[in-house]
Amino acid sequence: MSLLRVEGLSKAFGGFEAVRDVSFTLEAGERLAIIGPNGAGKSTCFNMIGGQLRPDRGRVLLNGEEITGLPPRAVWRKGVGRTFQIAAAFGSMTVVENVQMALLSHHGRARALFPLARALYREEAMALLERVGIRDQAERFCSVLAYGDIKRVELAVALAHGPRLLLMDEPTAGMAPAERHALMRLVSAIVAERGIAVLFTEHDMDVVFAYADRILVINRGRLIAEGPPERVRADREVQAIYLGSSVEAPA
C-alpha cells in the first residue's frame, strides 16, 4: 500500500479549472517533486493534499485512510508535516522554545502555563535542533536568525510530531545556492533515517533534479509527465513547456 494515494483531484475557481483529474502515489522513503510553470496548478494541488483547500472531485488517502477535505490541523494529526514557501517562526521566542511549542501541541499540552511550558520537552526539542544542525543557536531569539536558519527551525517544528509525510512548499526559496543544497542534503538524510516520504514543490531545477527520486510535471492543471528525473528531463513536451531544450544535468 502506498503511503500517499491521490486519485482524480480536481479544483475549479469560478470558470477556471486549476487542477484537472490529477492522480499519483508516493511511497514511504521517497522524495517526489511537483514542478510546472507559474499558474500550472502546483500550489492548488499541494493545498488540497494539506487540507488548505477542499477538492471539487477526487480523493486523498494516507496509508489507506481517506483524508480528503479534512482541515489542516486534522491532516497534521494524521501524520502530515508541512513547511511553507515563506518560512516563519515566533520571533519573540527562542529557537528551542519554538520547537517546544510544537512538541507541546503534539503531546496535547498546548495550554500549559508558560513558566511550566518552558521546562517541558526541552531535551526532545534540543535533539531535533541537533538533527537539523542548529543546536548551538537554541537560546537565540528567532527574530535575529539568518533566513537559512529559520528554514531549519521550521523543519525541526515540522518533525516535532513524527510525521509520516512531509509537505515542503518551495523549501529552498530565498536561500543562497550553497544553503539550498545543504538543506536538501539534510532533508534527504532525514528521509533515509526515518523512512518518511517528502512531497515538495520547487522552482530551482538544480535542486529538483539533484534530490527528487521522481518528478511530476503539471501544466494548465493536468499532469503531463511523471517519472524519474532522467525520463522527465528527456520528455519533449516538458522541454517545450517548461524546461527548455538547453537544460543540462546538475553538477
Key descriptive features of the protein:
alpha/beta; 10 helices; 251 residues; disordered C terminus; Rossmann fold; six-stranded mixed beta sheet; globular; four-stranded antiparallel beta sheet; 10 strands; 2 domains
Provide a quick synopsis of the model.
With 251 residues, this protein is of the alpha/beta class.
Would you give an account of this structure?
The protein has a six-stranded mixed beta sheet, sandwiched between helices. It has a four-stranded antiparallel beta sheet with strand order 2-1-4-5, covered by helices on one side. Strand 7, helix 7 and strand 8 (197-201) form a beta-alpha-beta unit. The protein has two domains: 4-88 and 164-243, 3-Layer(aba) Sandwich (Rossmann fold), CATH 3.40.50; 90-144, no CATH class. The protein is built from ten helices and ten strands. The protein is α/β, with parallel strands linked by helices and 251 residues long. The two termini are 35 Å apart. The longest helix has 18 residues, at 177-194. It is globular, with a radius of gyration of 18 Å.
